[in-house]
Amino acid sequence: MTETGDDWTALLLAVRDRQDRAAFAALFRHFAPRIKGFLMKSGASDALAEECAQDVMATLWQKAHLFDPARASVATWVFTIARNRRIDALRRAKRPEPEDLPWGPEPEPDQQAVLEMAEDTARLGAALARLPPPQRDLIEKAYFGDLTHTEIATQTGLPLGTIKSRIRLALDRLRLQMS
Amino acid sequence: MTIRHHVSDALLMAYSAGQLPEAFNLVLATHLSLCDDCRARLGAYDALGGAMLDTCQAQLAGDSLEACMARIAGQPPASAPAARPPRGLFPQPLQDYVGGDLAAVKWRPLGMGVRQAILPTGRSATARLLFIPAGQAVPDHGHRGTELTLVLQGAFSDATDRFGPGDLEIANEELEHTPVAEPGQDCICLAATDAPLRFTGMIPRLLQPLFRI
Ligand SMILES: [Zn+2]
Ligand SMILES: [Zn+2]
Questions:
Q1: Is the confidence at residue A147, as pLDDT, over 50?
Q2: Residue contact B9–A155, C-beta within 8 A
Q3: Does any CB of chain B come closer than 8 Å to the CB of residue A22?
Q4: How far apart are CA B194 and CA B165, in angstroms?
Q5: Whole-model pTM?
Q6: How many other C-beta atoms are found inside a 10 Å radius of the C-beta of residue B47?
Q7: Contact B40 A168 (CB under 8 A)
Q8: Which member of B63, B68, B90, B202 has the lowest number of beta carbons within 10 Å of its beta carbon?
Q9: Would an 8 Å CB–CB cutoff place B145 in contact with chain A?
Q10: What is the mean pLDDT of residues A165-171?
Q11: A157/chain B closest Cα distance in angstroms
Q12: Cα–Cα dist B145/B126, whole Å
């Protein structure tokens, strides 16, 4: 299996729908080292980062039913869990979440939308790797926790437009189903 | 609800990265609950976070997966989400801080019919609900840091523009303003500041320490 975004989606859906342990192990091998690295770059010790990485992956198992592949890639979703865990572990400011959309993820996500979301995320990763070092450095500092909100200037030139429109479409579709 | 004033890119990125004081997080979570545009933009910043996470790497402990499976075996099964109270004026994140909707707010008078209720957050920034009677002005003031004001009911105007339900005004050091509530309906806002305001009038300045504004 090649390591592309839509494969991670399929694995997470196998965890969600069948509690598939082999699928979980594959997700773990890919994401746990990244979560641990993310936490260490954010200032956690090796031991704390290891504990948090296991914790984040356990949360992924437990909350798999909330994953909506039309609105986020697996990497994005893992990031949000890891970020919240970091906020708790490193005693940063509490972060209330927006209201849940009451209808939750679609039971049968639109396959085309899921595929496009995964492709857009892969393109974003590639574009990020090509950014000029000063700009990339700034984004790293923001996400690894070395910049305060007043130091985070408006980022221009980030290729976020297509992902934003795709998420917006997914939200509109959900709202439409409800009305 | 037609929202015209949204969260800035810098604030959305800081919220996505988890770098905002609690009071600001609350204002953003409340606006995001009302605004699918900003929700989609936040999703894009979270995707950026996902791409950053993908670039990280650290050596796991030897028994990491087994330890994680043991954690999973020990955790309670996911509970069904709690039934949501009916949507009132306040979105869910704000209701969590107030302990209910508008009727649950414990207002304190600030004079001239203006009332406030400070919400319990970390001290690096302060969050408050403001009640401004229709037609009434908030004393003229400037800002030492950032002030976020989210309209929940009614509307106010200042020299920059008009702000109606769902609109967010982001004020900083450069802005000095006198927000005036529109006639017709009392204005209710959720406001957060990370530094005390600078009042130009004498009386508000004297009262300032009392009200933590
Ligand atoms: Zn908005
Ligand atoms: Zn102000």
A1: yes
A2: yes
A3: no
A4: 23
A5: 0.93
A6: 27
A7: yes
A8: B202
A9: yes
A10: 90
A11: 12
A12: 12
Chain A contact for B84 (CB, 8 A cutoff): yes
CA B14 to chain centre: 13
Q: Nearest-CA distance from B106 to chain A in Å?
A: 21
Q: Where are the beta strands (DSSP E) in chain A?
A: none
Round to whole Å and give the CA distance between B18 and B34: 20
CB atoms closer than 10 angstroms to residue B33: 24
Which has the minimum average pLDDT: A134-143, A146-155, B109-118?
A146-155
* Residue in A with minimal Cα distance to B67: A54
Q: What percent of chain B has pLDDT over 70?
A: 91
Maximum separation of any 2 CA atoms in chain A, in Å: 49
How many CB pairs (< 8 A) connect A and B?
220
Mean pLDDT score across all residues of chain B: 91
CA distance B213 to B211: 5
Q: Report the C-alpha gap between B127 and B26 in whole angstroms.
A: 8
Contact indicator for B189, B155 with CB cutoff of 8 Å? no
Nearest CA in chain A to B37: A168
Binary contact (B93, A98; C-beta < 8 A) = yes
Query: Rounded to the nearest 5°, which phi and psi values hold at B156?
Result: -135, 160
Q: How far is CA B102 from the centre of its chain?
A: 16
Q: Which residues contact A131 (CB under 8 A, 6 or more apart)?
A: A139, A157
Mapping DSSP to helix (H, G, I), strand (E, B) and coil, where does residue B194 land? coil
List beta partners, residue B187: B132
| Nearest to B96, CA basis, from B110, B82, B79, B116 | B82
